[in-house]
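Suppose you are handed only these lines of text.
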Amino acid sequence: MPIYEYACSVCGHAFEHLARTLDDKPVKCPACGAKKLAKQFSTFAPATATPKACGDCAAAPSCPASRMGGCGCG
Ligand SMILES: [Zn+2]
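From them, the structure of the protein bound to zinc ion can be written out as follows.
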């Protein structure tokens, strides 16, 4: 189950929400009760994230790791 980060548009309170289904969203801010919530991008990489692409690496065209789906050179 993915954990999403939300921030309250009213008071700025940031919190995490465990989504049990795709449509599971927090109803209101746990701090102030406002219903204006903005979904945040997670600041940390989940353990299940795909490996970093090799796009920024100068050796990308020849990097064997990039063909394996991840880059070990940058
Ligand atoms: Zn709030």
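What can we learn from it? The pocket of zinc ion is lined by residues 8, 10-11, 13, 29, 31-32, 34 (CB under 6 Å). The longest helix spans residues 64-67.
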